[in-house]
Specification:
Layout (H helix, E strand, L loop, with lengths): L1 E8 L12 E10 L3 H16 L8 H5 L17 H17 L2 E9 L21 H13 L24 H18 L8 H7 L15 E4 L12
Helix pairs in contact: 1-3, 3-6, 5-6
């Protein structure tokens, strides 16, 4: 069986609320029998650097753990630059080693607005959308749709968990942010090492190494505005 952990980068806030230009959803797919090994290796890294295998590591915590960044705090801030470089190297190597496939959906918010019931002005509280997601999930399992095919073999329902309690969600976050960064700051794939070295190779690739359905951009009409597609 395969497991997919999904996380987002960006937000649903409007531009008037200083919301992001881009919203990215990324699914990190792993084989079930790899789950324990992945968790153990990630916990070992956490214990080595923080003496706490349960500490949460996600993309913004990791970036701002850099001691050279003095104006932004992080729950995992390090005081030694050499130690930070070592942490970055170990996490990058760990993520490159994992047998995973990524599916990312990139939404250009200005050109393609998506309606989301948002109880906290741009931050989705997942417990409020459980029932709606369950309805969609059930339709996907048992019905053909206008833009999906029936998938009866997926698990019974979508499960929600906070990232601090779930290693898989933390990994999805770490893979997701580089995709967001590329489009939010309009960069090519080689201009951000975390994307080029870590996330890009894990995206589902089609024939001859061309990205297939691993990266979906909406709407298609505004691709020309992004350097990634030039």
């Amino acid at each position: 069986m395969y497991l997919m952990y999904i996380d987002e980068s960006g937000n649903t806030a409007t531009f008037q609320e200083n919301g992001s230009k881009i919203l990215v959803l990324t699914g990190c797919i792993i084989e079930e029998d790899q789950k324990l090994s992945i968790e153990q290796k990630f916990r070992a890294i956490k214990k080595k650097f923080y003496f706490d295998p349960d500490i949460e590591i996600k993309s913004n915590y990791l970036r701002y753990a850099n001691p050279d960044i003095t104006n932004i705090s992080s729950p995992i801030k390090l005081k030694d630059r050499h130690k930070y470089d070592e942490l970055e190297k170990e996490i990058a190597g760990f993520m490159q080693e994992i047998r995973t496939v990524l599916i990312s959906v990139v939404i250009d918010k200005k050109a393609y607005w998506v309606c989301i019931i948002d109880p906290r002005e741009g931050t989705v509280e997942k417990k409020f959308i459980d029932k709606e997601i369950d309805k969609i999930h059930n339709l996907v399992r048992w019905s053909e749709g206008s833009f999906w095919k029936k998938c009866p073999n997926i698990i019974e329902r979508a499960l929600f968990s906070t990232s601090d309690l779930t290693v898989g969600i933390q990994l999805a976050d770490l893979y997701c942010y580089p995709v967001y960064h590329i489009f939010e700051y309009d960069k090519t794939k080689k201009e951000y090492w975390r994307f080029f070295d870590i996330s890009f190779p894990k995206l589902y690739h089609g024939v001859f190494g061309v990205i297939g359905s691993g990266l979906k951009f909406f709407p298609d009409e505004t691709k020309k505005n992004f350097r990634f597609f030039s």
